[in-house]
Design goal:
homodimer; mainly alpha; Arc Repressor Mutant, subunit A; Tetracycline Repressor, domain 2; elongated; DNA-binding
DNA sequence: GCGGAAATAGCACATGCGTGTTAGTTAAGC
DNA sequence: GCTTAACTAACACGCATGTGCTATTTCCGC
């Protein structure tokens, strides 16, 4: 069999994905057109369409690739060990990594927003992946605040916490941080970085402390009791 | 002087505005095109362009008109007297009027979102009008929760409250409700109406009550500031 | 009546989009 | 060197958009 020139499709697609990300940052997900991305990458539309049959396939790939890229960028940052003067300060500095407080994080937030928009318009069964990951992060944050042992791996943090109070405050905190990020970008005049940080810390201080360790945080048998939430 | 046929421009523009609102609900603010709105209203583009010179003028008018219409629809509802079993319940039922919990309020939220998007892309000096109004509403809510006299008129509520704790919790609550609304529409699977209501009430219960004017901030050793029940 | 300004309807042009098709180019295997 | 499949580039079609321009209709004041 004769094998003509071969190119690495995955690598090509990654190259296109990088160009598409630049387009998203400049014009939003709606600007991710076949022509636009091809021009950004310096290719012709015909070439691009050897790797993506249509616009949906292109956007779908870009959303997936962007999600992965953001994960790889953000996760190490929130897992970075830090010297904090208090639990509140430690958790606040973690959560601030998620807020669009400077140019770099504003870019990341714009990408997250584009992904959320995509997920809203193309709902997948099993719920939003990014939502579940964010919830796990806030669950960890609240557990830390209340003095629980942090979950070892990320999969563990994806499960509901045995302490229902952790679940409740994780939901409250998650929702609040979502709103905070939205206000920072939508009404930056009314929500400058300093105000955002103060509000975040104020809410963290409002998280009630765990009751004294009558029962240490031993993971109980696999079945958590039915919780009112969710 | 000869006066030809005269039509009420304001009334025409209002008619166009109503058609544009229908278009926004169907296709978003991006769908507000000269052709689209004209077709929705049953006119030709040439006619429409006697009242709006270009697309920007059309969208600008629509945003303004929609803001006014929403104000007129929502304000009486949040001011409706209610019989509540508690302060938390009373405030919760007010704030729920702002959440996209049913078809009607989802429509209103979609319109609010379109306005916020417009304001973000076309920032005006003096900050966002809608943001300030929302903040005033939450300020009132927190004041109510803490047992203050409610402000008489709306202009009064637009000013910062003398109690700094009211200002702080108004900001926290405002941000939280923003996030709640966003999650309800963006990830409805993870944030159904019942959960949203429970989270809202949980946060309202976390608002610290006003200290009785007996002993303000005498901090007993090792006891964190006043906390809600439970 | 009727002149004429306002109002209306419609067309034309340039632009940008997704997508289908087609001709040219490249390079591995024979 | 030749063949052939993959790759590249470009064009064409249909559609939608904003906007400028031009007939056509309407109706008040004379």
């Amino acid at each position: 069999m004769r094998v003509p020139r071969l190119v690495d499709h995955d690598q090509r697609r990654a190259e296109l994905g990088a160009a598409a990300i630049r387009v998203i940052l400049r014009e939003g997900l709606g600007g991710v057109t076949v022509r636009g991305v091809a021009a950004e990458a310096g290719w012709s539309t015909g070439s691009l369409r050897h790797y993506f049959r249509n616009q949906h396939e292109l956007q779908s790939y870009v959303v997936e690739a962007t999600t992965d890229a953001l994960r790889r960028r953000v996760l190490p940052r929130v897992r970075r060990p830090r010297t904090a003067s208090s639990a509140v300060e430690g958790v606040a500095s973690i959560l601030e990594e998620m807020l669009p407080l400077d140019a770099g994080r504003r870019e990341e937030y714009a990408l997250w927003s584009a992904i959320v928009e995509w997920e809203r318009q193309h709902p997948s069964e099993g719920g939003s992946v990014t939502w579940n990951e964010q919830r796990a992060l806030h669950r960890q944050a609240v557990a830390l605040l209340r003095g629980h042992e942090p979950a070892q791996d990320l999969d563990r943090a994806a499960l509901p916490h045995p302490d229902p109070e952790v679940e409740l405050w994780a939901a409250l905190l998650h929702t609040f941080v979502d709103g905070l990020a939205a206000q920072i970008v939508n009404t930056p005049g009314q929500m400058p970085a300093g105000t955002a940080g103060r509000l975040l810390r104020a809410l963290l201080r409002a998280v009630p402390p765990a009751v004294p360790p009558v029962v240490p945080p031993v993971v109980p048998p696999a079945v958590p009791p039915a919780r009112p939430d969710r």
